[in-house]
Amino acid sequence: MTARIVPITAFAFLLATLLHSQALRAQTGATLAGTITTSSGAAVSGAKISAKNLNTGAVAEAQSDASGHFTLSSLIVGDYEVSIAAETFAPKTMKVTVAQHAGIKCPNTTTRGPIRFHKAMAWIHGPGMILTPILGALAYEQKNNGEHVHGLAAAHGPVAIVTASAFGAALLSVSLKF
């Protein structure tokens, strides 16, 4: 009976050692997860995230989903240089210390190119969408009373043209990416 106990005990010891080494290996890995957003909080989809371990030089890469979320898993705990790049945003690089369940958010991301132009056109188009119907109602009332369109109501036509032009330019800027 003693001879049988020794092999079972040896097997149990070997199994416990293997499980313990797997548990230790799991503790040395980490996940870097987060959300890439603009300075206004809008999610940035399709951003490329690259994390370079400063000790080993190993690089892990991911891409943000439609909600701006990304996950880099199986990282070694330590210091990383994290780079974030997206088509319409200036690239961002930062140093991050990665530990178990670390996360990252890229603050103050600036826009460039067609998105910047689109936002500028929105500042023209937005107020125009409010003013055009108001001025149109004033002009309609003046015409129905047999009056010549005058005062602020006379600006209805030019405001509508500028509003429509800004809207069209904003759409083209993001569609054609000029």
CATH architecture of the largest domain: Sandwich
Instruction: Walk across the major sheet and give the strand order.
Output: 3-2-5-6
Number of domains: 2
What distance separates the N and C termini?
Answer: 84 Å
Poorly predicted parts: 1-27
Order of helices and strands: HEEEEEEEHH
Tell me the β content: 25-35%
Shape, per Cα inertia axes? rod-shaped
What is the β-strand count?
A: 7
What class would the helix/strand composition place it in? alpha+beta
Fraction of helical residues: 40-55%
Notable features of this structure?
178 residues; 3 helices; 2 domains; Immunoglobulin-like; alpha+beta
Task: Map the helices and strands.
Layout lengths: L1 H27 E7 L12 E6 L5 E5 L5 E8 L1 E9 L2 E10 L3 E4 L8 H31 L11 H21 L2
Helix pairs in contact: 2-3
What does this structure look like?
It is a single chain. With 178 residues, the protein is α+β, with helices and mostly antiparallel strands. The protein has 2 domains: 80 residues, Immunoglobulins (Immunoglobulin-like, Sandwich); 63 residues. Helices cover 44% and strands 28% of the residues. It is built from 3 helices and 7 strands; from the N terminus they run H-E-E-E-E-E-E-E-H-H. The protein has a 4-stranded antiparallel sheet, with no helix packed on it. Strand 2 and strand 3 form a beta hairpin. Helix 2 runs antiparallel to helix 3. It is rod-shaped, with a radius of gyration of 30 Å.
Quick structural gist:
This protein has 3 helices and 7 strands. It has 178 residues and is of the alpha+beta class. It has 2 domains: 80 residues, Sandwich (Immunoglobulin-like); 63 residues.
